[in-house]
Amino acid sequence: MALTPSRPPAPWQASSPDPLMFPTPAKRPAHPAPEPEQQQPASKRRRLTLEREPESDASTSTSTRTTPSMIVAGSQMAHDADAPSDLSDTPMTPTPLKDTFYVSEVPLEPPEEKPPPPLPDALLLLMIPQLVLEPPSSPNYVAALYVSWLAMRRCLRMDLTPEVELRALTGQAEVALLVLDAAVEEPWVKGVADVAENGITRGLQIVKQHPTLAYYASPLSFLQVRLAVLRGPTKRALNLSRQTHAEYSQPNSTSDASWLHYLHHSHVLSTLAPSQITPQLGHLATPPRVDPLFTRIHSVLRLTYLLLHQPEDFPAECRSLLSSFSDPSALQASDASLLLITQVLSLLHSSSSPATSDSCAFHSKLLDSLPALLDDILSASPPPAPKASKTVPILFPSPPKKLLLSLACLVAAAASRDASGRQSKRGIWAAEGLKLFEEEMDELPRWYSLKEKKALEKQLHEVRALLLCELISVAIMRSEFQEAKKHLDSLELYTSSVDLFTQFSPIISLLHGRLAHSVFSVSRAKDCYFLASHLAKEQDDTGIRLSATLDLLGLKLGLGEDVQVDSEDLLLKLVDCNDENLNEPARVFRAIAAKEIHKSKQHLKFALDSATLRQDNYLRLLVLSITASHYQLTKASRAVSALQACRQLCLSLGAPPEGEKKPTSTYGNASIGLWVGEKYAELLQRQGKDKQAKKQEGINHALRERWTRDQEEMARLFAVQQEEITA
User: Is 0.90 topped by the overall pTM?
Assistant: First the structure.
C-alpha cells in the first residue's frame, strides 16, 4: 500500500514523541525532478484528509515522516546522489506528513451466496395454518379455516416420516376443533369431527410404535378430550379426561407437565353441568405443590366450586388465597387478573350470605381496595417474552380486560347496596362500568375460536345491560324518576338491538313495575309484576320470579289488603332461603303481616341489624319507618327518634351534587319523606309543639307539591308510551 504526499506542511516540534519516526535528508532541491511513471495495479483509492498546519519559511529544511508500512516515492531518493541515506545517523528535525494523501485498497470480493435448500412440500403445508389463520373478528376467518383444513388433509396424503405425520395429525385435530367451535354451516364441514377423531387415534398408535415420539401423546390426549367434550356424550368425556389425568399426571410431581394435565382435567370438569361433576371434584382438595401461578389458578377453580356447592368452606380458603398475593401494584398482569377474579368471587359470596360484623368489615375492605386494583390492571404491561431461545411460554386464556373490569364494576355496584349520599357508591360503580364500553376492545388473539368470540360478545352485552339495570334501581330509590325512565328506555333499546330482549324481559318488566309502584300507579305496577313473574317462570328464573312476587305482596300490604293467607307460605319460604337478598326484605314484610307485636319487633330487629352491617340505607329506611309506626301510639319518644333518623336517610337518598343549591325540602326520597313528615307533624301537635309543627307543615307542603308533580309527569310519560305501543 503506497502513501503519496501532496504538499509539505509546517515542521513539527523537535520534541514530538513518535518512536516510529526515521530521519530524512537535510536538503531537497527547489525543483525536484518529476517522478517516473510507474504502472499501478487497478485498485480503489480513498482520500484521507488531516488537519492542516501553517506552512513554514521556504528556506527551512523539510523532512518526511514515515512508518515501517510506508514506502517513500523513488524520485526523492534519486535526485541527489551525494545526499545521506535515509538510514544515516544525521540528526534532522522531522516534519509531519502532508494533510492529504491517498490510500490504495485491495477490493474485497463478496462471498458467493448459496441459495437456501428448497422447503419440502410437507413442511410448507404444515406451516400454512400459522401463515393464514386470522383472529375470529376478521371477515376472512372462515376462509382461513378452510385453507388450513385443506393444507392438513393434503399433507397427510403424502409419504411422511412418523414425526412429520404426527405433526400433521396434531395440526389437523387443532384445526378441526376451531372449525367445530365456529359452528360453520358449510358443505366441507361435514365429517370434520370424524376425520379428526380417526386422526387422533392414528397418532396415538404411531406413538406406541415409536417410543422416541412419546412427547406427542400428551397433546393428542388433550385434543381427544376436548373433542369428546364438544361431541359428547358427557360420560365418555369424563372417562377420557380421568384416564388422561391418571396416566400423565403424577400426584407428587413438581413438573409443569403434570400440572398442565391437572388443570386441564379441572377445566374440563368445570365446563360440564354441576350435577355431572360433583362426584368427580374430590381431587381439587389436594393439589400438587409447584409454581405459585399454577397453585393460584387451581385455587380459583376450587373457589368457583365451593361458592356453589360448599359455601361454608368458602371464606377460609378465599382469605388464604387473597393473603398469598403481594402488593397489587407490583403484580404482573396475570396475577392481578387472578386477584381481581378472587375478589369478585368473594363479593358474590358475601352478598348472598348472612351478614356478620367480621364478614361485612372484610367485604368493605375489598370494595375500598378495588379501584386501585382496577387501575393497576389497566396499566399493567404484558408478561415479558422468554429470553432463552428454547423456552416455550405457557399461555393461559384469561378474559379480556374490558370484560373483566366491567364485570368487577357490576359486582361491586350490586355488593355496595348503598344508594345514599351526594354520589352514591352503587351509582358510581355502575357509571364507571358503562364508561368502559365507550372504548374499543383490544383485538382478540389468533387462538380464540369463533364460538369463544361470540360468547365473549354476548357476555359483554349482558354485563352492559345489567349495569343499566343498576342505574335504574339507584334512580328509583333516589326518586329520580325521569332519570330512571330514560335509563329504562335505553335498556329496552339496547337489549333489542343485541337480541337480548327476550332474555331480559322478566327484569325489564320488574323494573317497570317498581317505577310505577314508586309513583303510585297501582294498576300498571300490578300488571308489570304479574308479567315479570310469568316470564320468569317460563325461563325458569327463580330469583326474578320470587322478587316479583315479593314486590306484589308489598304493594298489596301498602294498599291494606288482607294477604296473610296468600303470603304466609311465601314469606316462610323466603325467610328460610339461603339468598340474603330475598331473606331480609321478606322479614320486613313478615313483620308487617304479623298479628303479634313481639314477633313483628323480632323480625324488624333482625332486619335492621343486617341492613346496618351491610350499609343498606334504603332497607334501613323501610325498617325504621315501620318501627316508628309501631311506637306512634305507645311510646312517642322512640317514635320521634325513629322518624328523625328516617328524615336524615330520606335526605341522603337524593342529595344534590356538591355545589348545587336546592332547598332541603325538594330533594331526597319523595314518597317516604312525605309519609315521615306527616307522622312527625302529628307527634309534634300531640306534644303541644305548635311552632315546630307549623314549620313541619310547610316542609310537608313542599314535599306534597313535588310528589304530585312527579306523579303527573310520570303519568304523562306512561300515557305517551302506551299510545306508542297501541299505535
Answer: no
Write down which residue in 53, 78, 108 finishes a domain. 108
| One domain for residues 190 and 153 | yes
Please give the tally of structural domains in the chain.
Answer: 3
**Is there a contact between 345 and 303 (Cβ–Cβ < 8 Å)?**
yes
Interval 436-486: pLDDT, tens: 898 877 777 777 778 888 888 999 999 999 999 999 999 999 888 999 999
- The answer to whether 525 and 510 have CB atoms below 8 angstroms apart is no
Q: What is the DSSP string of 472-505?
A: HHHHHHTT-HHHHHHHHHHHHHHHHHTT-HHHHH
Buried b (16+ CB within 10 A) or exposed e, 76-85: beeeeeebee
Please tell me the total number of residues recorded for the chain in this structure: 727
- Over the stretch 671-725, which tens digit does the pLDDT of each residue have? 888 888 889 898 888 888 888 888 888 888 888 888 888 888 888 888 877 776 6
Which backbone phi and psi does 141 adopt, to 5 degrees?
-65, -45
SS (H, E, C) 369-419: HHHHHHHHHHHCCCCCCCCCCCCCCCCCCCCCHHHHHHHHHHHHHHHHCCC
Backbone dihedral angles phi then psi of residue 578, each to the nearest 5 degrees: -85, -15
Burial 133-148 (b: 16+ CB within 10 A, else e): beebeeeebbebbbbb
Same-domain pairing of 131 and 94:
no
Q: Does the residue 716 lie in any domain?
A: yes
Q: How far apart are CA 182 and CA 396, in angstroms?
A: 20
Asked if residue 554 is part of any domain, the answer here is: no
* 720 lies in some domain: yes
Q: Which of 29, 36, 85, 90 shows the shortest CA–CA distance to 62?
A: 29
Distance CA 625, CA 614 (A): 18
Shared-domain flag, residues 130 and 219: yes
Return the closest-CA partner of residue 552 out of 590, 582, 513: 513
Reduced to 3 states (helix: H, G, I; strand: E, B; else coil), residue 431 is helix
Residue 105 bridge partners (DSSP): 44
Q: CB atoms < 10 A from the CB of 127, how many?
A: 13
Measured from the Cβ of residue 414, the count of other Cβ atoms closer than 10 Å reads 20
Q: How would you class 446 by CB atoms within 10 Å of its CB: exposed for 0-12, middle for 13-18, buried for 19 or more?
A: middle
Q: What is the chain's alpha carbon radius of gyration, rounded to the nearest angstrom?
A: 43
Q: Is 716 exposed, middle or buried (0-12, 13-18, 19+ CB in 10 A)?
A: exposed
Regarding whether 83 and 4 lie in a shared domain, the answer is yes
| CATH code of the domain containing 682 | 1.25.40
Sign of the C-alpha dihedral, residues 76, 82, 86, 90?
negative
Task: Please tell me whether residues 67 and 40 are part of one structural domain.
Answer: yes
Q: Are residues 621 and 727 in the same domain?
A: yes
pLDDT in tens, 535-590: 999 998 888 988 898 888 888 888 877 766 556 666 666 666 666 777 788 888 88
Confirm whether 707 is domain-assigned.
yes
CB 183 within 8 A of CB 453: no
Instruction: Give the range of the structural domain holding residue 71, as residue numbers without chain letter.
Output: 1-108
Do the Cβ atoms of 179 and 145 come closer than 8 Å?
yes
Rounded to whole angstroms, the Cα distance separating 356 from 371 reads 24
| Contact by Cβ (8 Å): 625, 646 | yes
Task: State which of 231, 256, 282 marks the end of a domain.
Answer: 231
Indicate if 97 and 127 belong to the same structural domain.
Answer: no
Q: Are residues 646 and 727 in the same domain?
A: yes
Concatenating the DSSP letter of every residue in 356-371 gives: -HHHHHHHHHHHHHHH
